[in-house]
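Title: Comparing notes on inverse folding

I've been comparing how different people in this forum approach sequence design from structure. To keep things fair, I'm posting one structure and asking everyone to reply with a full sequence. Here's the target:
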């Protein structure tokens, strides 16, 4: 079996809900990421892409009907390039990369383009069909932007609490106070701003045609724990979670090019990192924020390393509290918390659901390349109680 390698990764800037990217269709955002990725590898004939695996969490509006295939067609790739869209909610584009890596390892393709997209601004309202014809009463339109909707009555109530309430439960379970959450969130904004200023994201982020957005729209350079402390709780009157320490609603797309070792000649450049381990885990739905702990542990075990070997972690910051709960658990096994999200995280950069997995794996590969260190972990929590993780090995450090 061939190993699977990361050859290139890009993303669009992430826009705020209703912000600069709100006027751009998700299939056009996806096509932007595809063309931006291919521009990184000009020696690759697009016809050589064996498959496209794309992630999207919503798929209820303009992202319907296999948005991955739509992106391929809109980006002008040959019609012979196939594509599939996968949905594991927040983990969709990381799942796409995992599926693509398995395709390469099995020998079914040498080059696989993966990624994901989400336009939370353009997510539609939906109306359920009535149980009988010609109902006399009113129907309520349901937002598809985020979270549970049209819930099956057979689901236990504790499983279907709002995402924010689920994380208030995490704060109680692990005794993580509001102050720690606000400090973590302010750190995310500070590090994201510094990374942009230092040029780290210059080669990772591609512009969207017709949109004046040069960097992630949600970053607040002036965020401090003291300022965030002034925000009101969002889910409980006396709660700990606020708009400042929870990830916002966002729009954006990401793309990652994977290939076999033999694909060097086809792609025209050396790989950046090897996918050395993968992990998936599941837990009771209300504890979804803690699920990355087990997923990452499994990925590390499959890579044959431990937390003491890890030099970089990209953990998607859905909420500050769930990120802290995961980091605290890994720290007990030897992880240095200071290596987590050193270029900022989703609390500042944003979390367009289907695009976030591609962002964390692309950022991780770039961090390892910048530092020269060998091992890194990308992980993401997923609504309804799941998580994914991938271990990357920096190829320069490995050789």
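Reply #1:
Here's my take.
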């Amino acid at each position: 079996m061939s190993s699977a390698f990361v050859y290139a990764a890009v993303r669009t800037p992430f826009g705020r809900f209703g912000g600069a990217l709100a006027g751009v269709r998700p299939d056009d955002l996806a096509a932007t990421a595809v063309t931006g990725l291919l521009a990184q590898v000009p020696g690759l004939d697009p016809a050589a892409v064996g498959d496209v695996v794309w992630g999207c969490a919503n798929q209820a509006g303009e992202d319907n009907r296999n948005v991955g295939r739509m992106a391929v067609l809109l980006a002008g790739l040959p019609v012979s390039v196939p594509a599939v869209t996968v949905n594991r909610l927040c983990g969709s584009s990381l799942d796409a990369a995992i599926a693509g890596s398995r395709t390469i390892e099995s020998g079914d393709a040498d080059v696989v383009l993966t990624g994901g997209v989400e336009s939370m601004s353009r997510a539609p309202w939906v109306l359920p069909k009535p149980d009988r014809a010609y109902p006399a009463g009113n129907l309520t339109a349901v937002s598809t932007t985020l979270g549970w909707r049209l819930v099956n009555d057979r689901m236990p109530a504790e499983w279907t609490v709002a995402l924010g309430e689920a994380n208030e439960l995490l704060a109680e379970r692990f005794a993580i106070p509001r102050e720690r959450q606000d400090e973590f969130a302010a750190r995310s904004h500070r590090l994201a701003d510094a990374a942009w200023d230092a040029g780290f994201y210059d080669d990772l982020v591609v512009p969207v045609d017709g949109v004046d957005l040069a960097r992630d729209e949600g970053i607040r350079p002036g965020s401090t724990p003291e300022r965030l402390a002034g925000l009101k709780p969002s889910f409980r009157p006396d709660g700990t979670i606020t708009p400042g320490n929870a990830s916002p609603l966002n729009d954006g797309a990401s793309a990652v090019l994977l290939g076999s070792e033999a694909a060097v000649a086809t792609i025209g450049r050396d790989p950046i990192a090897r996918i050395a381990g993968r992990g998936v885990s599941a837990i009771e739905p209300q504890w979804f924020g803690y699920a990355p702990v087990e997923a990452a542990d499994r990925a590390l075990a499959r890579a044959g390393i431990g937390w003491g070997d890890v030099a970089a972690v990209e953990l998607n910051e859905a909420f500050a509290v769930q990120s802290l709960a995961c980091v605290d658990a890994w720290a007990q096994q030897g992880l240095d918390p200071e290596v987590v999200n050193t270029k900022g995280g989703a609390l500042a950069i944003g979390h367009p659901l289907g695009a976030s997995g591609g962002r964390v794996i692309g950022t991780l590969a770039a961090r390892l390349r910048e530092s020269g260190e060998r091992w890194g972990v990308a992980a993401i929590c997923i609504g309804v109680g799941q998580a994914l993780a991938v271990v990357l090995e920096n190829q320069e450090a490995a050789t």
